[in-house]
Amino acid sequence: MMIKGKFITLEGGEGVGKTTNMSFLKDYLSLHGIPVTLTREPGGTPLAEHIRILLLESSDEVITDQAELLLMFAARAQHLKQVIEPALHAGSWVICDRFTDATYAYQGGGRNMSAQAIQWLENFVQGNLRPDLTFLFDAPVEIGLKRARHRSSLDRIESETLVFFEQVRRAYLLQAKLEPERIKVIKSDQALIDVQSEITRFLHPFVFNDHHS
Ligand code: Z5A
């Protein structure tokens, strides 16, 4: 079946503004008559949201790195079949708060899991499906963590060390270097209005080339 919608993902470390800017993106696309589906990872379906709780809740049992990686992809497999692919086939544009770039950054960069293992799972679970456009919100780790800590108590992954989040940030920026056409880096330690004008700068040609052609 042919895919008609576009797949946009939002990425970055803690508190960089992914959730805040999701509604801005939705409003922008809706204004241009584009149907939008908003979702997130890990999560997006009842089963995947259960997995999210397992992944993020602190517990006495230590989750192994392998189990964490496989749970991320288990949630993703369900989410893709139940939500993302049907929405794209129906012509909706899907905006997803985090996707597989987060796995390369957190499990690959943060936990040092092999990129080949992640790539194998990516191909196995996603086939050829990749995001069409990704916004990588980037800010110094301390700024994002300060914002996230101000907002709520910390979950299991948010309780990691500064070194872990520096590795995550580095891995994200490396991916952006490798795929500059798809991954647009947005400086997010600036005023929200400036963040959103950068988003618009990248989104506008994307909308007009793909949707109005
Ligand atoms: N994870 C993983 O390890 N592997 C994977 O494959 C996937 C995920 C998919 C859940 O993610 C965790 O799962 C995440 C990675 C891991 N772990 N951690 N840690 P999540 O997306 O649900 O959780 P999050 O990264 O912690 O998101 P967040 O803290 O909600 O951050 P955010 O959505 O980017 O930020 P925000 O809520 O929009 O903004 C934070 C605050 O900053 C808020 O008060 C805003 O009003 C404020 N803000 C935002 N922008 C600005 C600007 N420009 N100026 C000033 N203030 C601002």
TrEMBL record:
<dbReference type="GO" id="GO:0005524">
    <property type="term" value="F:ATP binding"/>
</dbReference>
<keyword id="KW-0545">Nucleotide biosynthesis</keyword>
<dbReference type="GO" id="GO:0006227">
    <property type="term" value="P:dUDP biosynthetic process"/>
</dbReference>
<comment type="function">
    <text>Phosphorylation of dTMP to form dTDP in both de novo and salvage pathways of dTTP synthesis.</text>
</comment>
<keyword id="KW-0418">Kinase</keyword>
<comment type="similarity">
    <text>Belongs to the thymidylate kinase family.</text>
</comment>
<feature type="binding site">
    <location>
        <begin position="12"/>
        <end position="19"/>
    </location>
    <ligand>
        <name>ATP</name>
    </ligand>
</feature>
<dbReference type="InterPro" id="IPR039430">
    <property type="entry name" value="Thymidylate_kin-like_dom"/>
</dbReference>
<dbReference type="InterPro" id="IPR027417">
    <property type="entry name" value="P-loop_NTPase"/>
</dbReference>
<protein>
    <recommendedName>
        <fullName>Thymidylate kinase</fullName>
        <ecNumber>2.7.4.9</ecNumber>
    </recommendedName>
</protein>
<dbReference type="Pfam" id="PF02223">
    <property type="entry name" value="Thymidylate_kin"/>
</dbReference>
<dbReference type="GO" id="GO:0006235">
    <property type="term" value="P:dTTP biosynthetic process"/>
</dbReference>
<feature type="domain" description="Thymidylate kinase-like">
    <location>
        <begin position="10"/>
        <end position="199"/>
    </location>
</feature>
<dbReference type="InterPro" id="IPR018094">
    <property type="entry name" value="Thymidylate_kinase"/>
</dbReference>
<dbReference type="GO" id="GO:0006233">
    <property type="term" value="P:dTDP biosynthetic process"/>
</dbReference>
<dbReference type="GO" id="GO:0004798">
    <property type="term" value="F:dTMP kinase activity"/>
</dbReference>
<keyword id="KW-0547">Nucleotide-binding</keyword>
<keyword id="KW-0067">ATP-binding</keyword>
<keyword id="KW-0808">Transferase</keyword>
<dbReference type="GO" id="GO:0005829">
    <property type="term" value="C:cytosol"/>
</dbReference>
